Structures are given as C-alpha cells and as structure tokens.
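RETRY 2/3 - previous attempt timed out on the joint model. Re-submitting the same 486-residue input unchanged.
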Amino acid sequence: MEQFWNVTLQLLGGFMQNCELFGVTLLAALPLGLIVAFGSMSRFFPIKAVCRTLVWIIRGTPLLLQLFVVYYIPPMMTNGDFRFGDRMTAAIIAFIINYAAYFSEVYRGGIESIPKGQYEAGYVLGMKKRQIFFKVVFMQVIKRIIPPMSNEIITLVKDTSLARIILVEEILKFADDFRVQGLIWPVFYTGVFFLLFCGLLTLLFRFIEKKLDYYKV
Amino acid sequence: MAFLEVKNIKKSFGKNTVLKNIGFSLEKGEVLAIIGSSGSGKTTLLRCVNFLETPEKGVIYVGGKLLFDADDPMIKRESEIRRNRLHFGMVFQQFNLFPQYTVFDNLVLAPKLLAKDQIRSRGSYRGVASFKQAQASIISEAEQLLEKVGLTEKRDSYPCDLSGGQQQRVAIARALALHPDILCFDEPTSALDPELTGEVLNVIKGLKSSDSTMIVVTHEIGFARAVADKIIFMDNGVIEEEGTPDEVIGNPKSQRTREFLARFNRFGD
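RETRY 2/3 succeeded.
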C-alpha cells in the first residue's frame, strides 16, 4: 500500500509536467492558430503561401520528429552556442507550433462555413469588416468548431507524453523509470491519469456546448 | 434630377454580361417594383445599388449626391462605400438575421456600433453628441419598429425560434433601424411558405403609407401591381419595359413582357 501511494505521488508529480505542457500549449496555440488561419485565407499570396506551407509541413511530419528538431537543431546550427534553456521549453515550442497548425485548420473550416449572407447583412448595415468578424461571425464560428476543437484538445492531452522523447520529466518517463527497476504496473497505471483528465475535459466541452445551445447556426 | 438616379450600369461575371448598360430613376416616396424571370439580372441590379457588387460602368446619385462612379477609384474605397451604403437599406431573400443575437439585439447592434463610430469621428450621431443619449433613442426606436412589424412580444426570442415570416419582418425592422433613404427588398417572400408571404407583404404595404422610398425585386405580380408606383420588367440584362403598373402589367407593349405575364396569369395570379 505504501508502495502504491509512493508511486502515485511520483506519477502525479510527472503528470503535473504534462498538465503544464498542455496548459501553456493551449493558451498560446489557440490565438496563434487563429492568426495562422487568417494567413491561410489571406488574399495576399505570399502570406497565404507561407502559412499553407507551414501547415503542410507541420501536419505532414510526426510531432516526435518536430520535438527532435526543436531540441537538437538550434545547438547544431550554432555550434552549441544556443540551445533552449531546458527540455520543457523546447517541448512547449514544438507543441505550440504543431497545435497552432492543427487549430488553424479547424478555425479555417469554421470561418469558411459561415454563409456569405452574414457578411453581406453586416455590410449593408454599415458595419466594418472587423466589426462583422468579431460581432457577427466569430460567435458562430465558435459554436461550429467546438466539436472538432474538443477532439484536437483531447488529443493534445495524450500527446504531451511524447515529450518524453527529449527526456522531459513527464509521467511516462517516471513510469518507465519504475519499469527499469523491475516494477511494471505503474506503466499501465498512468492510463488512469490521462483517462480522468480527458473525462473532465469531455464534461467541460459538453457544458460549453449546452451553454451555446440557445441559438442555431 | 430625380431622388435616386442609377445610370449606365454594366456588370459582368466573367464573360457573362448580366447588366447591359441600364439605368432607372426614382422619386422620393415612390415604390419601384422590379420584375422579370430568374437570371434576368434584377437581383444583381439591386446588389449593385447596395454596393454588394461593383459594376464595371455606371454612376449612382441619391438626392443629387454622387455615391458611386465606376471611373472614380476614390469613391470606391471601402470607407466611402461603407458610408454611402447607409443611404440604402437591404432586406434579403434569406433574411440573414444574426443567429446568436435576440430579435432586439439584431435591431440595435449596427446602430449602436455606428453611433459609437460617428460620435468618435464626427462628434455626433443623428444630431446627438452623447453616446448615452444616442443609445437611448436607438433603443426606443427599435421598440417602435418592433411594434410596427408586429413583433413586440418576440423582443427577446432568438431567430431560430421564429417562423420565416417573422424572421423577415425582423429583417425589415433591422434595415429600418438605420433610417435608410431607400429601402431595398431582394425577393423578400421567395423563401417563405405561401401562407407566410401575406404577413411580410402587408408589412411592406404598411411602409408605403409611411412615405418610404422603396425598391422591391419580386415575383409577386399582384403585389407589385397593388403597391408599386413604377414597374420595371427586366429581361436578359436590359430593361425591357418600364412604366406605371397599369401600363406594364395591365397593358404591356413588349412581346417579352406579355409572355412573362402570361405565365403568371395562367395560374390565376
């Protein structure tokens, strides 16, 4: 029993790292993704080309590989003069870029699904483009993207364990340390942490969807 | 010069010329009905007048003021267009209400934003210098408009809870909330069940008596005849015939007009 609590505490400490990676990535990638989405829809070709290429590269390569790139390439290019202060920073940067790319496509789908008539109604009422976007279109986009966004966000929870590959001290790394010492059950036990966290998120998303139920788009 | 002067409008989509150098004029307080078969260019003409489409050629004057000139790039800037658009109100076939706002908020959203902007940039909105006062009059006007279209009790409902006819009446009130000089209707009853068209047409009829200038693109020939002072029959991008309802509908001169009207009469319109 004492061993169980000991393991639980250790894993919980590791899981805090997962939570930090999750939280920071979410906070940064949500707005950044919106900016990238605007870029991908820009009428100015160079911006559009850059954003779409970025999204293509990020979505077209494994996140695991992107973690390696962010962690190892800067010191290689600078003969070791520059590297990210700690492994966690490198992981956060890779995750933000990766998730901003995925989020941007969710946003783009949502924005492009809003009927042209909504913009035209705004125009004939003398509204500015910015006002139309933020006062009229945005809330409709939010409502439409909550289901696909929930999916991405729940995937993000589990993806945080990939940071282990650059030795971030997250939950699976701790579990693996136990395994090396001959104690194998903590590896399976980690699933409980992820399950509980995703369960909470699912409830939260369901609550938000209910909250937005008062109108239809 | 008439109150509204639309001259030499030419508009193409790709190789397809939809409006072939056409124009019309309208006096203050008059109602113009534009009829014609689908694809004849009536909706495009209305959209050009509202600056939702940019014609390649043509000019538009309201009250003697030049609002659009296809040859003048300055007047086609977004800020100019936005200001000039306010001379026109537009009611769409598909209503285009804002789904996340209540009926009341649909009415006051744009006037409030406009009041804020105009007070900031010019010092006043409709002669009022304080935003609070402007807001108070926007709110009371919105309430009056809801009464006018008979939807006072739907004030706090959301568009998804209204029938099509009710939504369209809200859309009319929303357009009126900005005090347009000319109110435009793009087939306002075409998306409605036949039993709901009456309530919308009655509201439009009611506006005529309150001296609004209106342009109505419609397939309701009986309605056009009853309400319009002037009718334009469009065919294939040109104005085939224009005149009073009695002239155009009662006694059409053009062969095309006769053919078009015959199709309606056959079903006892």
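The interface with chain A takes residues 50-52, 78, 82-83, 85-86, 88-90, 92, 94, 96-100, 109-110, 113-114, 117, 158-160, 174-175, 178 of chain B (CB under 8 Å). Closing ticket.
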